[in-house]
Structure formats: structure tokens, C-alpha cells
User: Which sequence fits this backbone?
């Protein structure tokens, strides 16, 4: 079963270039019938479609890594990526000097940056 | 009057007497220092040099009078909720300062050095030296002037030639321990930078008068706020951990924030601790634009700030700024005197809008300094301000330092105390989760709420909105109650709306069709999970961030050379993380039928196209992985808690050298996620049980507790094996030929047979050896051997 992929609008061809010939013989990517793909086997290792040796050489290493991960390893990778992303928060030098007039957001009561805790 | 905010104490002087009290206590006890006869001119709390005093003296009180400076020891008792009580101790350290009027004192927390300035007619910087014992050429306590001037200049400055001479003196000192610098601000608005190259030196390396600062600004921007009448009212160091280039922020009397950078001038061989030789204005932040600041909340008289006019470099909103303070990562407190009498200060407070800084609206424009600010009527004149909580730092280096969103659930919210002539007020930084909960509370009906939520998504992105909504739905939102407590929000309506927001605004997974065509990999690998998945991952990572890469235990040694093993992370912290993750687990379980990707196989029926189906599968794979991880972390923490219930040092010592080294290196991430970590944990379980068997304790109880709390580290088969081992041990103690011994042997054999399939070779060998040594043949031990061999890998390998 294949599904209809909306066609990408054709880019104007620059001088000297030529349009790639469409490849109708390419096998559809989602060939497996929907009955065989269920939530039960989602967490298990995905069987790779059989590929010609030349194609296998061209495959990036990450693809096979992604497929052999256990659910816990996959989640751990997500957490590590998220933690790394959090450490990429820009430093003060990067954002302090862009404009001299301040960028204050009109703050409503719910967005007050501080609250008074108590008065003695 | 002043504050020692880090100790929750305030102080007041009455002539020659100094009194301290706990301002958080409803009926505080007064602690006094009345043992000297002279009028007190300045008081400062500093951190002493290590090993000069006993360890219980955590701080020194430096009391300057018109005649002497006294050092008084301070010890404080701390509990989980803060400082309980403070006690003062005489150190018999004092030094004469006759002829001076000390007005400012500053101490270096890193080195314990104490500096003071003469607040009358000199810009000299003095240091108080102190040591444990008197030496040949050094008293226990003395003073050094680090600014020695030639006699001629001193004489010239005293000869007036009929003119009235205004002497320049130090009005503020500030120390940056990360760069070994002392900054001073003089009465004529000159900034001086002193470098502490060695433990005894202090060299003036830069002098920057206000006129040169204004000239530098003139090259960048023109504003009437930096005219001849503008002076500097405050300086605040910016540490090297917060910024690699910026050193200092100076605030003018017109409310402008001037960011200054300093450099040693050499590109090579310079680091943060080398002496700077040049200081430049890096940037100027002008006051907020003038607008109508009118809306007030009834309870707290908080006045919000509304941005309006486009030209903002001449705003007079912060004219007559009396004092200003900056705390990392950019909290700005500006005290504005609105009347000539100056008896009622207005406070302008602003803080970075971290969520928006990290996510620029237009990526081409780069990161921008977005702030949120508002006004507060102080109801009195500000006397002092201080940071109650530890200084903020989300990371140990400038990159990531200011990420307030990342530490929302990991660090206590920053609190700042302000002392006025009418009392003490505490200002608390609100987190994004608190703002989100507040937006729901004051959102104004279903339609208003939806608009509010769309605004939130626009400002902070869908992933951050999901993470925030999830956190609020799991009870992370907090608010200040009327009785001044910080309480978690448990209001059903707020939690319910946060739940709806998480479900309805979580977006959907997307298939990257280009990748599918390009590398012919499995389609599911090219599914980008939904922002909801990103939100869950953000929330989990923010809960576990402080333990994730941390080792589980740390080894030390006792004074007599024995081994001590302590948890590397406080057990209370682990319990709190586990509690929050359990809430998250329960929330996801209760709502799984509404969440795409967790709803189960029936959700596939709703997929209209094959693409939808693949996207749903990808989402399911990503979400179920996270759900499994949550379970694994909860269980892993349980295991660590059980481990530290036992004598960990004995357990660690009972391991082989290789295993001990591996345990030493084991991180929480390894324990939660890697098969090696699980294996190591099982080895530790075995060591716990063996120790209990050796001790003669009831193994069943401990093994059952382990199985119940962390089943994947100790299965029900393991419990039976441990029980069988215990019976066998008891049998050997009772004697193999006694009746009870035979019964115990039979009992142990039955138990072993029950779990023969799970017996490892190690267990099997040990059991058979025990049976043989006790001459317990009767064909039974042989049968165990046979069953064991047939059942496990040993047989299969032959």
C-alpha cells in the first residue's frame, strides 16, 4: 500500500542544470501491509528492507544505530540531547549588546517577574 | 541598619551598641554586641580565611567604630529550612583606625581577605590582616594601606589656596572572586579596579573616571540621560562564570545600566585571573520607556510596567535613582527617590525573560535581551538589600549560565530581602510555571484562557508550553499564600486546565518525507516526535538534571584510615525527584487514552492515511520509551535508597576490586539506562543479601523489600535463591547430622529446585559444594545439579 505524497513544487532550473528524471521503478518505502505494523512490534527492532550491497555501503551509520536501540537507550539518548540543548542557552555577551533601548515586554499581572512574599 | 540576608538576620546600631535579630521569626531574640565604648560607623558580614578560627565560625562580623575595627566570630546553626540561630564570639582581634571614618567594608569569600575604605577624605584602600597567632613581625590583627601616595600629592591635596576642597572618597566596594578583582566607586563617580595578584598584594590596575565613561558612550549612542548631571550610584560585578567579556555593571543616577568589559590586552597567555589593563563600555541599557504604569493588584500594590513609545533612550522613568543592585542572571533592582524628602522609595524590578531570550521570534535577528519589569511601592526608604538564596547559576560557564527554565524544579527560586525604615520585605522570583498557573487563574474564562494559551505558545514555543503545562498539571506550580508561605498550587481548576492544555496544544508528530526518500531507512526512524514529546523530555530532564551524570556514591576515609562511603547526592533530593517522577508516571497513565502515541493500538484506527499511521507509530515508539525510562528511574532511585539504608561501606568492601572500581564510576544514568549498570546493581543486591546472611538477619524481609521496591534489580526468583542460601547457612551452623540441620538442608534443596532454571553457575557450584561438605547426598544434591545443568546456559553450552 502506498500513500499519496503531495508533489514538491518544481524549482526553476538554473542555467546549465537539468531536471532529474523521475524514477518510477523505485520501490515504495512503506510496503508493509498495515496489518503487520501494530503497536506491539513498534518497540521491537525494525527489520530493515533488503538492500543491494552497494546501497548498504552508502547508508549512514546512524540509521543502524537508531534501529538497534532499546526503548530505554532511546529515551536516554533523548534526555541527553535535551540536556545538551539546555546547556546551549546563549551567554550574556551574546544577547546583551544588540540594542540600547530596552526590550521590555508589557507585563500583565500574571507575568510579573517577582512577587512580594511578606512584609514584617 | 542593614541586612545579613544569607543568615535571615537584620542589624541595627545605637551609638556603640550593635543588635542582630532573625527577621523571619515572629518573636525574635536580640543578640547584642555592647562591649566597646565608641560609636559604630559600619558593619559588614564576611567569610573568614579557612583554618584561622575553629570550623564552627562560618562568618566574621567586621564592626568599624570611630576608633577601632573589631572582628567578631559568628557561628550559625542551620536546618533544612535555613538558619536557626546565630551566636557571636569574641576573637580579641581589633586594630586601631584613629583619624578615619570607615564607611564601607568588603570581604573576599574565596581568600578571606577584608578591605575597607576611609569614607571621609581619602580614596585609600586598607586591608585588615588577621592570623591565628602572633608572629615575630606580625600582630594577630593589623591594617595595611594598599594605596601609598607620594608625600607631595598628599600635601598638595591639603593646601587649599582659599578654595573649598571636596575630597574624593570610596563610597562602594565590590569583589569578584572569579577574577580576583576589587572594584571601588568613589564619591566623584570614578571606578577603580584593583587586582589581587597574590595573597598579600592589591594593585590598582585601572582608573576610569565618569567623564571617560561618558565619552565612550558618546561614540555609541547619545542620550540626555548621560549629561553632566548624571553620576554613578552603584557598581555590581559580573562574574567570569556568567560572562567571559563583561566585568561590571554600573548604574547611573538616571537609571542607565552601563555594562563594562575589561581585558588584559594580550590575546595569548591571559585567563580570567590575569590583571586587566583596559576597561571599555560594552553596552548601555536605558530605562524602560515612559508609559502608563497604572494597573495595580489589590493585595500587594504591584504596578505593572507597560511599554509604549518607540524612542526609549531618553526615558525619565528612573530619574533620581538612589541605589541599584544587580544579581545573576540579570535581576535588576532600582530604587527611585520620587520626592525630595526621599521618604518613600519606588522600586523598579526587572528580570530576563529567559524563555524568550532562548527562542528569538525572528531567528535572523539573533538573540535579544528580553526583560519583564514592574514597579513596587516600598512604603519607606530602602536601607539595605541582600540575596537570601544562594547566587543563581544554571551552569558553571557563561554558556547555559542564565537558563532559568532549566533549573525551575532543581533549585530553590531566588529570593531577595529588602530592608526599609518600616520593615523587611522579601521579593521572590516567579518561575515560568508560576506565571503559567497564574495565567490560568486570571485568564478570564474559557475564551480568555485559550487566547492566553495561544499567546504563551507564540512567545515560548509549543515544546516549552507543553513542558510547562505538564509541570503545572503535575503540581509544580507554586504561589505565595496570604500567610506568606510558598505553597504548591493544588487548585483543581488550574490543574485540570493545565492537563487540557498539555493534551490539546501538544502538536503532532511529523514524518520527514525527504529523509525517507533519501536514505531508504525505516520510515519510523524519520518521524519527528511531537512537541508534546519534547515537553515530556524537557520536564524529565529538568527533574533529573542534577543527578543524571553524577556518581552514585563517593568514598572517603576516616581519621584512622577506614573507608567511608556516602551518597554523592543527598537522599532527600533523590526522594523529591522520585516523588515528582511518580506524579508524572501517574499523570501519563491516567491520561494515556487522550494522548496520541500512548493511546494503544485502537488509536491506529483513527489514522486516515498511511503517513498518519507511520507518524503515530513513531510517536508511540518515542513516548513509550520515555514512559519506560520514568519507571526505570523511579526504580533505580528506590534501589539507591535501599542501598544507603544498609552499611554501604561494608557492602562496597565485600566486592571484588574490579566491581568496586565499577561501582565507584557508576553514574545514575548508567544505573537507570545501561545493562552494565543493572548488572552491577544486581551484584550489589547480592552483596547486601550476603551481608545479611552473614549477620544472621532475616533475609526474606530484606529480599522481599528489594523485590517490592526495585523488582528489576531483585526478582522473585532471586528472593527464593537468597532464602535457600540462608537455610543452607543455618544448616551448617546447626550441624548437618542434627534433625533441625537435616530439615533445613531439605528445605533449602526444595527451594533451589524451585528456581533451578534461574540458578547461575556460581550459585550452583556454591550450593553443591555446601551439600557435599555436609555429606548431604541421598541423590538429592545430584538431582539439583542435574536440574540446574539442564536448565541453564551451562548445559546449553555443551
Assistant:
Amino acid at each position: 500500500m502506498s500513500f499519496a505524497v503531495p508533489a514538491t513544487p518544481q524549482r526553476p532550473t538554473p542555467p546549465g542544470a537539468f531536471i532529474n528524471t523521475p524514477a518510477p521503478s523505485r520501490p515504495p518505502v512503506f510496503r508493509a501491509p498495515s496489518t503487520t505494523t501494530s503497536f506491539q512490534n513498534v518497540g521491537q527492532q525494525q527489520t530493515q528492507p533488503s538492500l543491494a550491497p552497494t546501497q548498504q555501503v552508502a547508508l549512514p551509520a546512524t540509521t543502524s544505530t537508531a534501529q538497534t536501540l532499546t526503548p530505554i537507550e532511546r529515551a536516554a539518548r533523548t534526555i541527553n540531547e535535551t540536556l545538551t540543548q539546555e546547556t546551549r542557552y546563549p551567554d550574556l555577551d551574546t544577547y546583551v549588546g544588540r540594542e540600547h533601548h530596552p526590550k521590555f515586554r508589557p507585563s500583565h499581572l500574571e507575568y510579573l517577574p517577582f512577587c512580594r512574599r511578606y512584609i514584617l | 541598619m542593614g541586612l545579613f540576608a544569607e543568615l535571615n538576620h537584620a542589624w541595627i546600631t545605637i551609638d556603640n551598641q550593635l543588635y542582630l535579630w532573625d527577621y523571619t521569626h515572629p518573636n525574635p531574640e536580640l543578640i547584642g554586641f555592647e562591649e566597646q565604648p565608641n560609636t559604630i560607623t559600619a558593619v559588614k558580614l564576611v567569610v573568614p580565611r579557612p583554618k584561622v578560627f575553629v570550623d564552627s565560625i562560618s562568618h566574621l562580623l567586621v564592626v568599624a567604630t570611630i576608633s577601632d575595627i573589631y572582628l567578631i566570630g559568628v557561628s550559625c546553626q542551620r536546618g533544612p529550612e535555613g538558619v536557626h540561630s546565630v551566636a557571636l564570639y569574641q576573637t580579641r582581634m581589633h586594630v586601631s583606625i584613629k583619624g578615619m571614618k570607615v564607611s564601607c567594608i568588603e570581604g573576599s569569600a574565596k581568600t578571606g581577605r577584608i578591605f575597607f575604605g576611609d569614607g571621609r577624605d581619602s580614596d585609600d584602600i586598607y586591608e585588615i590582616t588577621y592570623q591565628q597567632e602572633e608572629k615575630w613581625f606580625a600582630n594577630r590583627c593589623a591594617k595595611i594601606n594598599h594605596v601609598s601616595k607620594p608625600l607631595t600629592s598628599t600635601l598638595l591635596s591639603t593646601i587649599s589656596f582659599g578654595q573649598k576642597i571636596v575630597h574624593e572618597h570610596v563610597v562602594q566596594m565590590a569583589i569578584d572572586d572569579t577574577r580576583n578583582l576589587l572594584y571601588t566607586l568613589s564619591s566623584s563617580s570614578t571606578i577603580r579596579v584593583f587586582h589581587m595578584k597574590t595573597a598579600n598584594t592589591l594593585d590598582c590596575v585601572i582608573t576610569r573616571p565618569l567623564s571617560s565613561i561618558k565619552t565612550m558612550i558618546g561614540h555609541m549612542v547619545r542620550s540626555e540621560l548621560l549629561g553632566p548631571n548624571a553620576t554613578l550610584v552603584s557598581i555590581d560585578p559580573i562574574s567570569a562564570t556568567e560572562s567571559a567579556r563583561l566585568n561590571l555593571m554600573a548604574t547611573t543616577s538616571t537609571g542607565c545600566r552601563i555594562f563594562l568589559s575589561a581585558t588584559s590586552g594580550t590575546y595569548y597567555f591571559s585567563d580570567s585571573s590575569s590583571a586587566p589593563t583596559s576597561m571599555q563600555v560594552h553596552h548601555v541599557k536605558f530605562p524602560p520607556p515612559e508609559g502608563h504604569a497604572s494597573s495595580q493588584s489589590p493585595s500587594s500594590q504591584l504596578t505593572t510596567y507597560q511599554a509604549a513609545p518607540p524612542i526609549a533612550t531618553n526615558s525619565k522613568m528612573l530619574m533620581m535613582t538612589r541605589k541599584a543592585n544587580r544579581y545573576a542572571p540579570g535581576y535588576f533592582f532600582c530604587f527611585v527617590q520620587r520626592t525630595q524628602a526621599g521618604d518613600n522609595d519606588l522600586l523598579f524590578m526587572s528580570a530576563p525573560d529567559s524563555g524568550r531570550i532562548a527562542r528569538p521570534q525572528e531567528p535572523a535577528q539573533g538573540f535579544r535581551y528580553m526583560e519583564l519589569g514592574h514597579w513596587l511601592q516600598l512604603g519607606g526608604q530602602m536601607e539595605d538589600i541582600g540575596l537570601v538564596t544562594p547566587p543563581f547559576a544554571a551552569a558553571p560557564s557563561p554558556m547555559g549560565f542564565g537558563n532559568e527554565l532549566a533549573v525551575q524544579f532543581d533549585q530553590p527560586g531566588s529570593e531577595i530581602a529588602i530592608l526599609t525604615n518600616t520593615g523587611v520585605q522579601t521579593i521572590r522570583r516567579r518561575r515560568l510555571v508560576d506565571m503559567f498557573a497564574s495565567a490560568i487563574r486570571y485568564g478570564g474564562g474559557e475564551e480568555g484562557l485559550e487566547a492566553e494559551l495561544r499567546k504563551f505558545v507564540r512567545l515560548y514555543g509549543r515544546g516549552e508550553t507543553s513542558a510547562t503545562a505538564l509541570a503545572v498539571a503535575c503540581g509544580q506550580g507554586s504561589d505565595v499564600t496570604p500567610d506568606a508561605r510558598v505553597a504548591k498550587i493544588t487548585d483543581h481548576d488550574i490543574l485540570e486546565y493545565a492537563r487540557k492544555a498539555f493534551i490539546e496544544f501538544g502538536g503532532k508528530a511529523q514524518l520527514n518525507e525527504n529523509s525517507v526518500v533519501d536514505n531508504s531507512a525505516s520510515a519510523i526512524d524519520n518521524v519527528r516526535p511531537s512537541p508534546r514529546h519534547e515537553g515530556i523530555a524537557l520536564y524529565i530532564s529538568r527533574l533529573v538534571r542534577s543527578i543524571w551524570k553524577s556518581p552514585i556514591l563517593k568514598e572517603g576515609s576516616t581519621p584512622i584510615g577506614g573507608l567511608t562511603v556516602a551518597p554523592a547526592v543527598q537522599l532527600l533530593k533523590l526522594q523529591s525527584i522520585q516523588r515528582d517522577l511518580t506524579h508524572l508516571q501517574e499523570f501519563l497513565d491516567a491520561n494515556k487514552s487522550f494522548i496520541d502515541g500512548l493511546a494503544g493500538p485502537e488509536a491506529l484506527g483513527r489514522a486516515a492515511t498511511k503517513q498518519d499511521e507511520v507518524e503515530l507509530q513513531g510517536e508511540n515508539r518515542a513516548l513509550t520509551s520515555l514512559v519506560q525510562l520514568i519507571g526505570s528511574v523511579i526504580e533505580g532511585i528506590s534501589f539507591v535508597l535501599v542501598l544507603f539504608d544498609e552499611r554501604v561501606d561494608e557492602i562496597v568492601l565485600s566486592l571484588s576490586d574490579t566491581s568496586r572500581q565499577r561501582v565507584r564510576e557508576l553514574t545514575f544514568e548508567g544505573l537507570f539506562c545501561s545493562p552494565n549498570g543493572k548488572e552491577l546493581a544486581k551484584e550489589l543486591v547480592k552483596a547486601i543479601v550476603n551481608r545479611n546472611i552473614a549477620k544472621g538477619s532475616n533475609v526474606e524481609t530484606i529480599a522481599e523489600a528489594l523485590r517490592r521496591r526495585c523488582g528489576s534489580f531483585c526478582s522473585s526468583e532471586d528472593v527464593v535463591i537468597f532464602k535457600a542460601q540462608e537455610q543452607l547457612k543455618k544448616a551448617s551452623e546447626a550441624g548437618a547430622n542434627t534433625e533441625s540441620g537435616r530439615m533445613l538442608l531439605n528445605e533449602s534443596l526444595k527451594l533451589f529446585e524451585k528456581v533451578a532454571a534461574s540458578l547461575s553457575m556460581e550459585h550452583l557450584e556454591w550450593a553443591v559444594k555446601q551439600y557435599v561438605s555436609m555429606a548431604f547426598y541421598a541423590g538429592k544434591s545430584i538431582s539439583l545439579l542435574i536440574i540446574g545443568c539442564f536448565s541453564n546456559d551451562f548445559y546449553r553450552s555443551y
